[in-house]
Amino acid sequence: MKNIVIVDYGLGNLFSINQAFLHFGYEPIISCNKEIILNADYLVLPGVGAFEGAMRQLNNLGLVEVLKEYVKSDKPIMGVCLGMQLLFEKSYEFGEHLGLGFIEGEILKFPSEVENVKLRVPHIGWNKINSFDRNNWNHSPLIELKEGAMMYFVHSYYAKPSNENVILSTSIYNKFEFCSSVQKGNIYGFQFHPEKSGEEGLSIYKNFLKIK
Amino acid sequence: MKTVRIIPRLDVKGPNLVKGIHLEGLRVLGRPSDFAKYYYDNGADELLFMDVVASLYDRNSLHSIIEDTAKKIFIPITVGGGVRSLEDIKSILRAGADKVSINTAAIKNPELIRDASREFGSSTIVVAIEAIKDKNGKYYAFTDNGREFTGKEVLEWAKKVEELGCGELIITSVDKEGTGKGFDIDLIKMIADNVSIPIIAHGGAGSKEDIENLFDNNIVDSVALASILHYDAIKHLKMNVNQNEEGNFDFINSGKSKLQLSPICLSDLKLHLHSKEINCR
């Protein structure tokens, strides 16, 4: 049986992510316990809310060091929505805040307009994900998805990786293109919510569990 | 590129899905979970549940319906009705909702919006505005299904809640709601032009053309739909209600609706929008 742990730091869409795994017959453990997290075969870092509050919670619970230790083991981890943003070095949401720093890059706010067209923020709704290099998807949880698959987004900030090689997909909101998922080794991040993106989204969780 | 959202709105009273006109005269149409599953299978982009009597009775009884729904349905769920405190919001989110919609409590205590968006993130907090046009053409915000006058002018209120950190607005035209006479374009456009957060238009959709026009004119990119979808869905669903419970079962028993609207299946609506080159999932 696969040992799946969803990190519980008092924030986030734990229920929905849990349901996504239950849908495939897996029973994740929802926990903030150091031993349980380090013992996981697959780790999910959820997140809804603000970057600063999330990092504060992770610090208060002593989880920053735990996550760093887990990542060193090279076992798979996926961050969802704010959970993806936390993987980066720094965010500019309400000030300047340090993240976990697993992936080089920053979290920035959407501009309020692009080419004179108002960009309503938050970006809420369904959007296509487009690959940089379709081959990369074959070694990621996106393996079952077609180019341009639609996923559900809710966010006001987006990730800007320093190194484009980590980009798994980009999406375009009105005319603004941003990074919608990343991969660096066995670290995965999805800006959209796979657990809220119908059957296609669910396949991401299923295929995350196939990663070795 | 912009993708529009079609959001079935499920008004719930006790165990039943209900539907009224001008948010009043609620008739039982069936079980909320049956409708929710049907809409999910037909390509709904989100679901919006409203406990329509929650404010009157100071309660929110949707928890079990949400828990049940969230196990089978993997699209975002917004829940409103009777949300009064940060604790209420937390418990609704824990039940499986992704966003909460607030009206009455925000009017009574606008700071709740600020506190809630700080704690749960802006995009989790939706403010519902029930608008009624007065005889001078001014729009005012109401609560309790358009019964209680708040004295707040709609546009000012919309700007205020945006400033307080709310992430999205649901604008209901109570005058049009349930009538099938088309959206109140003036109302929707007035707000859309003056705020920068996403807006969900609600109230009045009577035909697929009404919806198409709203999107075509680039006024908003999301709609909440009830009657126009429900009166189609009900033809495809097994009747599953207990008539010994409280409620108005006239429609279910007679099958007759005096409404002037053209019900449509959600998947057909999306095909129609695609054919008009309006981008949707």
**DSSP strand tally of chain A:** 16
The CATH topology of chain A: Rossmann fold
Shape of chain B: globular
Number of helices of chain A: 7
CATH superfamily of chain B: Aldolase class I
Work out the largest interface and the residue count of each chain.
A-B, 38 and 35 residues
How many distinct folded domains of chain A?
Answer: 1
Report the CATH C-level class of chain A: Alpha Beta
Q: Give the CA-CA distance, first to last residue of chain B.
A: 13 Å
> Helical percent range of chain B?
25-40%
The CATH superfamily of chain A is known as Class I glutamine amidotransferase (GATase) domain
CA gyration radius of chain A, whole angstroms = 16 Å
Task: List the defining traits of the structure above.
heterodimer; A: 212 residues; alpha/beta; Rossmann fold; eight-stranded mixed β-sheet; four-stranded mixed β-sheet; 16 strands; globular; B: 281 residues; TIM Barrel; eight-stranded parallel barrel; 37% helix
Task: Describe the overall structure.
The complex is a heterodimer of chains A (212) and B (281). By secondary structure, chain A is an alpha/beta fold. Chain A has one domain (4-208): Class I glutamine amidotransferase (GATase) domain (Rossmann fold, 3-Layer(aba) Sandwich), CATH 3.40.50.880. Chain A contains 7 helices and 16 strands. In chain A, the strands form 4 sheets. In chain A, strands 2-1-3-4-16-15-14-11 form an 8-stranded mixed β-sheet. In chain A, strands 6-5-7-13 form a 4-stranded mixed β-sheet, covered by helices on one side. In chain A, helix 1 (14-23) links the parallel strand 1 (4-7) and strand 2. Chain B is α/β, with parallel strands linked by helices. Chain B is 37% helix and 25% strand. Chain B is built from 12 helices and 12 strands. Chain B has helices at residues 32-41, 54-57, 63-72, 86-94, 104-108, 111-120, 154-164, 185-194, 208-216, 227-236, 250-254, 266-275; strands at residues 5-13, 16-21, 24-30, 47-51, 77-80, 99-102, 125-133, 139-143, 148-153, 168-173, 199-202, 222-225. Chain B has an 8-stranded parallel beta barrel, surrounded by 6 helices. In chain B, a hairpin with a 2-residue loop joins strand 2 and strand 3 (24-30). Chain B is globular. Chain B starts with a strand and ends in a 6-residue tail after the last helix. The mean pLDDT of chain B is 91. At the A-B interface, helix 1, strand 10, strand 12 and helix 7 of A face helix 6 of B.
